[in-house]
Write a structure and sequence with these properties.
CATH superfamily of the largest domain in chain A: NAD(P)-binding Rossmann-like Domain
Structural class of chain A: alpha/beta
Largest sheet of chain A: 7 strands, mixed
Strand order of the largest sheet of chain A: 5-6-4-3-7-8-9
Largest interface: A-B, 76 and 76 residues
Number of helices of chain A: 9
Oligomer: homodimer
CATH class of the largest domain in chain A: Alpha Beta
CATH architecture of the largest domain in chain A: 3-Layer(aba) Sandwich
Number of strands of chain A: 9
Mean pLDDT of chain A: 89
Shape of chain A: elongated
Number of domains of chain A: 2
Distance between the termini of chain A: 44 Å
Chain lengths: 220, 220
């Protein structure tokens, strides 16, 4: 009997948003464990320091096939590989950043993205004082060049780190260039055509969650 | 009969991590709706654009009391106020940032935190070339001043945006200064004493989630 369980990101299964957001958290945790030399780990030891129930984690994994064996610990390396496949992180995924202000530059220099399989290919701005300056070994290019750059390089992911008033225009330009996924730091609602994913990023979520835990006297 | 339902962040109820992380998302969404002039909204209209089920959202709210009325829409303004109370965002909460590199400065200038009730009070570094420079109207102070500054100002929240190798030392200094909550951007595991909350921030979660959705052909 053929196995119809979805096995990777090509799967058409509708996976809940919460699961999609937890998979990277699991992967980050596993990489931290690997860095400490941990080779095997039980689902409980893996899940609980993240304040996630082991059953919830196994349930998340289950969307992608049954890759735990009852009573056996996970192999850290195997699970990293498996989650990376599920999330399609195996090949280096190119992306660009629109906006080379502090936030855009901080994103460009954030070391983790390369470890996680992303490859920054371009950074764009309109400020003539910074055009041509180098960020993360890339020249800051003029925003006008962005759509053609995106098409010719076949890039499907773009981060928007421009002021709110400029964000929709940049979004439209990215879409014109063939972007299918927009990582929106601009704190404004963006309209994108059907088939283009907009992922809003609010840094304040982490700070608010921390504040809540501190004030509620919770202990992680 | 007294109402024993926990009503705000002083509640001792153990609220799941996932709920704590969704509350700020709801609040952000509601503020965006308010900015567009929306006054009332059904739970479904509120939840679905976030890719969250209305039942899940109501369940999250339920940890803090029963503040929906069957068949009646939410009042946007009332719900913002209620969620802000639950998350203890009513009074301006002071915090500091350790590390005034690109990421530290980007955090300092992130406009949203003030809207959400946080007040940056200090930013610290060790790089002599930037000490005394102004970020978000604050002078960059030497890291050595941080513990005394934290105690004298009564600050309980600190963000760590320093290189991984320095992060544990900074964490210890924050704890010595009375910090109860550490927002950790340093991509390294931190040890903190019982009673101190460490919230690890991985920007890559958003990028990985976006990548997954694009490649899985999902549409938000």
């Amino acid at each position: 009997m053929p196995d119809k369980t979805p096995r990777n990101c090509d799967a058409l299964a509708k996976v809940p948003e919460a699961t999609i957001l937890r998979l990277p958290v699991y992967l980050n945790r596993l990489k931290a464990l690997r860095a400490r030399g941990v080779v095997q780990i039980s689902s409980r030891e893996l899940a609980e320091p993240m304040n996630i129930k082991a059953g919830q984690m196994r349930h998340d994994f289950h969307y992608f096939g049954n890759f735990s064996r009852p009573g056996r610990p996970y192999e850290v390396e195997v699970l990293i590989k498996r989650l990376s496949e599920i999330m399609c992180l195996g090949n280096s995924t190119p992306y660009v950043i629109a906006g080379a202000g502090l936030l855009g530059q901080a994103i460009a220099n954030y070391s983790r993205f390369e470890d996680d399989g992303f490859n920054l290919r371009g950074i764009f701005d309109i400020n003539p004082r910074i055009l041509g300056m180098t960020v993360h070994d890339l020249p800051i290019r003029h925003m006008e060049e962005m759509p053609a750059f995106l098409s010719s390089e076949g890039i499907h992911i773009g981060a928007i780190a421009v002021p709110p008033s400029a964000a929709q225009d940049i979004c439209d330009q990215m879409v014109a260039g063939g972007v299918r996924g927009i990582w929106n730091f601009a704190l404004v609602d963006l309209s994108a055509p059907e088939g283009v994913v907009v992922q809003d990023e609010f840094l304040s979520v982490g700070l608010m969650a921390l504040n809540y835990k501190v004030k509620a006297g919770m202990r992680e």
